[in-house]
Amino acid sequence: MPRVTTTIQNHIAHVELTRSDKMNAVDPAMLAAIIEAGEALRGNTDVRAVVLSGQGNAFCAGLDVASFAALAGGDPHEIMMPRTRGPSNDYQHVSMIWHQLEMPVIAALQGVCFGAGLQIASGADMRIAAPDTRMSILEMKWGLVPDMGGMVLWPALMRADVLRRLTYTGEEFSGSDAKDYGLVTEVSNDPVTRALELAKLIATKSPTAVRAGKALVSYALEHDAEAVLLEESRAQASLVGTPNQMEAVMANMQKRAPNFG
Fold this sequence. Notes:
Elements: E1 4-9, E2 12-17, H1 28-41, E3 49-54, H2 65-72, H3 76-80, H4 90-100, E4 105-109, E5 112-114, H5 116-122, E6 126-129, E7 134-136, H6 150-153, H7 160-169, E8 173-174, H8 175-181, E9 186-187, H9 191-203, H10 207-220, H11 225-239, H12 243-253
Parallel strand pairs: 2-3, 3-4, 4-6, 5-7, 6-9
Antiparallel strand pairs: 1-2, 7-8
Helix pairs in contact: 1-4, 4-5, 10-11
């Protein structure tokens, strides 16, 4: 069975982890399949939003325990240190690919979202979680630290003291707790449905403006005020008068659904 499936309909790509019998735990095949699914969407101008979810009763239970044995059997430095995906190794790219995609990504979380699963979800632009979702930065349980992109992604979401506590203790917290921490965007009893609703709303907006908006937010998180002010102006100037921007104006004036290219 495939580890990941992607369905594209009405400009929305729904990417599902499909190893439900193992709570979508990440083994080497799952790692490769998640990266492949993300890379397949890179540059796809027809897709305006992505929903990332897990089939069954879990989003992702984390790294498959058998994967630890594989790491223990080799030289960890030889496995982890080579940069195979730009600045990342494959273990990091499984999360960073969703951060890098041009279109917004919404993760829908339920059941459990531990360790690797939490880092993968953190690569999304937004996370919708069931209030009772069980979550943890689990690596400390195994005497390890997060190493799948979490330390790039989490500082933009959580206060430093909260991030430190969750990292040092590995304690479990709920989807409702995660919203209070800033790690989850919304709680919903049906996170997949809510994520798809948001994706549908995003898909009604100018795709060029949405992509520019995602790029601008990412830029703003990584640069100083002077650079961001200049980038705001550059991004806006690149949009004004373009076909999709004009279509947004006309559709609003004529009170009709837009037809973007």
